[in-house]
Structures are given as C-alpha cells and as structure tokens.
From TrEMBL:
<protein>
    <submittedName>
        <fullName>MmcQ/YjbR family DNA-binding protein</fullName>
    </submittedName>
</protein>
<dbReference type="InterPro" id="IPR038056">
    <property type="entry name" value="YjbR-like_sf"/>
</dbReference>
<dbReference type="GO" id="GO:0003677">
    <property type="term" value="F:DNA binding"/>
</dbReference>
<keyword id="KW-0238">DNA-binding</keyword>
<dbReference type="InterPro" id="IPR058532">
    <property type="entry name" value="YjbR/MT2646/Rv2570-like"/>
</dbReference>
<dbReference type="InterPro" id="IPR007351">
    <property type="entry name" value="YjbR"/>
</dbReference>
<dbReference type="Pfam" id="PF04237">
    <property type="entry name" value="YjbR"/>
</dbReference>
Length: 124
C-alpha cells in the first residue's frame, strides 16, 4: 500500500490530513485523532534501522495496537515493534507490499479506535 493511498483513506474515513512536523524529515507525517492524539505516523527509514537486511529505504507506518496483541503480531513478516514508539503499545507495518492493503487499513482503524479512549489511565 502506498502512502498516498493511506492519505486518501484517512481523509475520507476520519477527515484527517498528514501533518509534517519535522523539517529534517520531510517525508514523515503524523495523523491526529480529533482529540489531538496521534493515531499513526508514516516515515521513510533505512531497513537496517528496523533490524532488517539492507540499506535501502522503506516506507513504514506506526499504529497503536492492543498490547495483548503486539507480541503475537510482530511475529508475522511485515510487522515490527513500533519504530521510535512505545514497543508495547505501537507496531510498525512495512508498506512494501508484504502486508495486504486490507490488513494495513484494519490496523489503522484499530489504532484510531484505541486513541479514542486514550488518556484514561487505569489505576493499578
């Protein structure tokens, strides 16, 4: 799935547009929930920074994930621990064709829904 397709999807689905917050990373964008919290980050990074073989660049998307699912999901090719994010609550999805469009969108939707309830901390 291409970044542009994701941009189009979130615009239609949630009315959000990419925000480019870092001048040194002009290809990196965040998507904010209507409550102001991030629900996805799209970046272009070198494969080796993800623990993968090679120095070529790859597009990725970070999405929030149910912590009970994270360890299981990252066992599947195309899914990695969240790059530059909390590894318990975020996953990285490769946008190189290894993960189907339907799955990418499912995880994007799940992330949006999880952010909807964010901010309520459980007392332990």
């Amino acid at each position: 799935m291409k970044k542009e397709e994701i941009f189009e999807y979130v615009q239609k689905q949630y009315g959000t547009i990419p925000e480019y917050l870092w001048s040194k990373l002009p290809d990196s964008a965040v998507f904010r929930h209507k409550n102001g919290k991030w629900y996805a980050v799209i970046m272009t990074v070198e494969k080796s920074k993800l623990g993968l073989e090679g120095r070529e660049m790859v597009d990725i998307i970070d999405v929030k994930c149910d912590p009970d699912m994270t360890n299981m999901i990252i066992q599947t090719y195309g899914f990695l621990p969240g790059y530059h994010m909390n590894k318990q609550h975020w996953i990285t999805i490769l946008l190189d064709g290894s993960v189907s469009e339907a799955k990418v969108l499912d995880f994007l939707d799940m992330s949006y829904d999880l952010i909807d309830g964010a901010g309520r901390k459980e007392n332990k």
